[in-house]
Write a structure and sequence with these properties.
CATH superfamily of the largest domain: Na+/H+ antiporter like domain
Order of helices and strands: EHHEEHHHHHHHHHHEHHHHH
Low-confidence stretches: 1-7
Mean pLDDT: 80
Structural class: mainly alpha
Shape: globular
Distance between the termini: 84 Å
Strand content: under 5%
Largest sheet: 2 strands, parallel
CATH class of the largest domain: Mainly Alpha
CATH topology of the largest domain: Na+/H+ antiporter like fold
Number of strands: 4
Number of helices: 17
Radius of gyration: 27 Å
Number of domains: 2
Length: 471
Amino acid sequence: MAAPRTRNNIFLGRLSLPERNIVTDALRTETVGGVLLLLAAVAALVWANIPALHSSYESVSHLRFGPAAVGLQLSVQHWVADGLLAIFFFVAGIELKRELVAGDLRDPRAAVLPVVAALCGMAVPAVVYALTNAAGGGSLVGWAVPTATDIAFALAVLAVIGTALPSALRAFLLTLAVVDDLFAILIIAVFFTSRLNFVALGGAVAGLAVFWVLLRRRVRGWYLYVPLALVIWGLMYNSGVHATIAGVAMGLMLRCHRHEGEEHSPGEHIEHLVRPLSAGLAVPLFALFSAGVAISGRALGDVFTKPETLGVVLGLVVGKAVGIFGGTWLTARFTRASLSDELAWPDVFAVATVAGIGFTVSLLIGELAFDSDPALMDEVKAAVLMGSLIAAVCAAALLKIRNAKYRALCADEERDEDLDGIPDVYEQDDPAYHLRMAEIHERKAAEHRKLAALKSAGNGTSAGTEGGTGG
């Protein structure tokens, strides 16, 4: 007797209903935040490039305030990059924890594909940057700049061009970005920590231990956690490790699985509260004080002539697309995963191209990598903007080709004929659903028969009247 065939894992298949709801809620907030991010980036460019306003942009960016006694008298730009971005990375830590315990990354077999795709999507841009600079005699310190993906900016671009991506493709992009954020955090922690204050670092670790104990004992009260988080952040900043690492660490400590009787886990609840602050305030303000670079014809020309800036552009536009698509295809080719019948490999390539929009974290790494050369730092920032813009235009063109197909898939996902709040596609195996649908169809048929009878009676009366008139 022949052995039964094992069904291949479906890559980019339909999500489970709980996962779909979580992804939809997260993407809705990120999309709104991404639109604000776009507006903030445009405002920064306008503010920095109007001669009458340029000096005020520099003055506000470098205005210093804060308690000098504890080493926290920082410029506005540093408060935003090191302080507010910690909120962004706190949310990223919660997202990663949720993916590890309840999302695509909880099953090692399912996690292989997005992890490999994200790793390839970071390694190939770094290699492209390194080769470009090795050939042109440029600096290799910026190798990490084109490795990051900005999910908020990417989703904002999707919202602007009106592409109705199916939830599976959006979830793939979100998972890629979560894994991407994890490795970007590791890059920042390992490669951009030049000095260490072990006393401050020990204090930060002790604070994180207290934070963990309070969570495990289910102690409630924001008035305890917020001051403790600020102390941990301040100690981490003074330790020499980038302060955003504190946000990630605290996000990873939150419980993201539900106990019996809980509607939401603590991680889900806090993420729901903090995500709007991250997407609507922290990231747009970072864009406002980081994207303000002087743009001129000469500056744009330098982007494509200097090896450092050309490496960033090629890394984002070419390296990201080739790395993510290649990693995905190779993983599917040499494992039992297969692409969903409703999607095609060009869809995967289009999403890989969207991932070339590397704004927030790329700008942050650019500031860290070229901190000793402000002029080159601004040029690298311009390259990040240019590379992200080119990736967005290419992705928009690719996605528009399949937009009609995406709209049909989204319509199927959203259809709810029995009006019970659950898409019909998730109820097809439920006998109660088929009973409800039979009742609905019978009611509609009865209404049609009634209308037909009324119409027939009306026609008969009209005919009788005409006959009587004619007699």
